[in-house]
Amino acid sequence: MTKTLYLMRHGQTQFNALGKIQGVCDSPLTSKGIADAKKVDQYFKDNQIEFDHAYSSTQERASDTLELVTDQPYQRLKGLREWNFGLFEGENQRLNPKYDPKIGSVGDAFVPYGGDSADDVQIRMVRVLTEIMDRKDNQNVLVVGHGASIYLFLKNWIPLEEIVKHVEMKNCSVLKFEFADDKFKYLKTINVVD
Fold first, then answer.
1. 13 is in an annotated binding site
2. Strand order in the sheet with 140-145
3. Which of 92, 117, 113 is nearest to 103 (CA)?
């Protein structure tokens, strides 16, 4: 049986607006982040998309976004948290390690500074989202998480070249997947905000 996952990035935060590195540290949603989440809520209503279950990361920017998108009960899961950037947390994005186009990430660059490796985040995201979708009563699911960890999850299922050419993942973007036989198939990205 095919199931559907709507994987949403949280709304814009103060750190996003200021160009600060935001992984396990948190900052509140901006007025734009709040307004954009409400636009996604309206999109779901206009398209009669309903969820039998909803989940968010334990970080407030994700759960606050989810609460603006739906008023249904939801579960917060630590496994959905953002990449830990170690000592880079809260610093200006100019300090980010250099992106390696061969591997499509910065790899282990944050590990010496107390952060996570890209592989560890990807493995965690694949595991937790598979566990969510494997639950018998989860057919049409909404999950709100974070940009970098969602990107690494997506990279597990489609080629890097396709992501670079076809996937724009802004704040409040929603990635739609089909799920069957413990595999995710990326369908499209829903962007209803500027």
1. yes
2. 75-77, 53-57, 140-145, 3-9, 174-180, 183-190
3. 117
| Residues tagged active-site | 10, 82
Supply the DSSP string of 135-155, one letter for each residue: STT-SEEEEEE-HHHHHHHHH
CA dist., res. 52 & res. 35, Å (int): 24
User: What is the third-level CATH fold of 3-18+29-82+117-190?
Assistant: Rossmann fold (3.40.50)
77-115 pLDDT per residue, tens: 999 999 999 999 999 999 999 999 889 999 999 999 999
* Residue 61 known to bind ligand: yes
Q: Is the pLDDT of residue 133 over 90?
A: yes
Domain spans of the chain, in order of start: 3-18+29-82+117-190
Looking at residue 26, what is its pLDDT? Answer: 95
Residue 91: both structure tokens together: 């610093």
Whole-angstrom distance, CA of residue 181 vs CA of residue 3? 10
DSSP element (H, E) containing 178: strand 174-180
State the pTM of this model: 0.96
DSSP conformational letter for 113: G
pLDDT tens per residue, range 154-168: 999 999 999 988 898
- Asked if residue 65 belongs to a known ligand binding site, the reply is no
Q: Is 37 exposed, middle or buried (0-12, 13-18, 19+ CB in 10 A)?
A: buried
Say if strands 174-180 and 3-9 run parallel, antiparallel, or are unpaired.
antiparallel
